[in-house]
Amino acid sequence: MNIIECTGISVFFGGLPALRKVNLGVEKGEIRAIIGPNGAGKTTLFNVINGVVKPSEGKILFEGRNITGKPPHVICRMGISRTLQIPRVFKDLTVVDNVMAGALFSGRLKGDMLEKYVNDVLEMVGIADKATVKGGQLNIQERKKVELARALASKPCLLLVDEYMSGLNPMEIEDAIDLFKRIRKEYNLTIIWVEHVISAVSSLADQVTVLNQGEKIAEGKPEEIVVDDKVVEAYLGERVVKHT
Ligand SMILES: Nc1ncnc2c1ncn2[C@@H]1O[C@H](COP(=O)(O)OP(=O)(O)OP(=O)(O)O)[C@@H](O)[C@H]1O
Ligand SMILES: [Mg+2]
After folding, report:
1. Cα(65)–Cα(92) distance, rounded to whole angstroms?
2. Going by CA atoms, what residue is nearest to atom 8 of ligand 1?
3. pLDDT tens track for 60-71
4. What is the CATH number of domain 1-79+156-244?
């Protein structure tokens, strides 16, 4: 059984479709990348899965239970957490308190367990040395780490990561790839991960789903996706042109 099964998901904003009849099934333990051009509907798909946006049609099963239309705090408590494309860190709270807020929101950990878990997570993502620094003093990469730590601190089974790699240099990308491999193993996670850095997708994803203008246009192993004509035309070709 897939850990998550989205069937026929459509979302309309003011009559315009952001997602059109999208199906997505992800196996437990998988790292699934979602790629596609700007405005393809990737973040909207995350918003639907974690309950921020109600789909106009379609159904979402998480571990076999119907979560369609449930509010975000309920979905978080059930074991799905996410990072935001633009990290939102409380400026006046320390790093450790920012991450603790994630743990408290989900309510999946209690008492003495909580503090130890939060400290483990800070070590894991590599931000433990900034534990007592205020959120407002962090640079963008540090804020991304806090965002990831906060999502992990809610002890999810399914983690949704919205663009972690953009803005990182090649060495930092290698580190991030290694980090995601470790967190999958250590925390027994399934990860769905929206990303524009295709080299990272190729080395980390088990399967890739490609969205374009709200529709799924391809799905398969990374090595199949990068040579798929439809994907090259809609996305990868354009990126090559943009970057040369
Ligand atoms: N809250 C909203 N209200 C109205 N339109 C929205 C809203 N959220 C998203 N959209 C529109 O839905 C479409 C899909 O947006 P979405 O943010 O999901 O794309 P994306 O694939 O995440 O793009 P990017 O790679 O730029 O992050 C876009 O046309 C966007 O303008
Ligand atoms: Mg997005």
Report:
1. 38
2. 44
3. 999 999 999 999
4. 3.40.50.300
